[in-house]
């Protein structure tokens, strides 16, 4: 059996990370959450009060910051310069800033390089927005995972509520729609389905059913 390289792209809240983590655990693959890297970079910019238009400061930060992912069965821990920021990067505040930061070419160049380095051994599942189109255009299997905005917002709402958040369903739906719009219309590496990606719409599927479907596709290719 040959372990392959899998790219999962799609809009916010489609369940990419939960599904990718589930599939990676079942098949003993390494899961790489690229969204967490953009969130970590955004967190570092906000911490240092770096203005998004200050090109020089952003460039300097790309040169100095060390972002590290430590994959685990349950959570993938995220570190910036050795500091564990796994929980900090999931707040609505970071979610509302990350797409602007992810639209900066200099940030993408830095993080794409890091992602390619992490993926080079194979046996990996990467999820994000540009994995099949830019990061790993020669991935063995590309999946475009999506669901209706309503289904995605409802899932995120339940997830956040469980963590004690009081954000309303309407606010979450609006934030997801805004992020989709920015991610799909930015000039650099916009979110789009690669020509050779398999479309999976999981509006009416559970996460387990989605994972079953993707596991079957991987097993056919191994
Ligand atoms: O996947 P997640 O929702 O955590 O990603 C956060 C944000 O990071 C996305 O809305 C997008 O702006 C950016 N992103 C990206 N390219 C990726 C992964 C995430 O631009 N490969």
Automatic annotation (TrEMBL):
- What InterPro entries does the database record attribute to this sequence? Cytidylate_kin (IPR003136), Cytidylate_kinase_dom (IPR011994), P-loop_NTPase (IPR027417)
**Which keywords does UniProt give here?**
ATP-binding, Cytoplasm, Kinase, Nucleotide-binding, Transferase
| GO CC annotation terms, alphabetical | cytosol
One Pfam family, short name please? Answer: Cytidylate_kin
The residues covered by the Cytidylate kinase domain are 6-219
Per the record, what are the reactions this protein catalyses? CMP + ATP = CDP + ADP; dCMP + ATP = dCDP + ADP
Annotated EC: 2.7.4.25
Q: What is its main location?
A: cytoplasm
> Does DNA-binding show up as a keyword for this record?
no
GO terms assigned for molecular function: ATP binding; dCMP kinase activity
One GO biological process term is: nucleobase-containing small molecule interconversion
The UniProt record gives the binding positions of ATP as 10-18
Q: Where in the cell is it found?
A: Cytoplasm
PANTHER family, A to Z: CYTIDYLATE KINASE (PTHR21299:SF2), CYTIDYLATE KINASE/PANTOATE-BETA-ALANINE LIGASE (PTHR21299)
**So what family is this one in?**
Belongs to the cytidylate kinase family. Type 1 subfamily.
Recorded protein name is Cytidylate kinase
Biological source species: Megasphaera hexanoica
| GN (gene name) | cmk
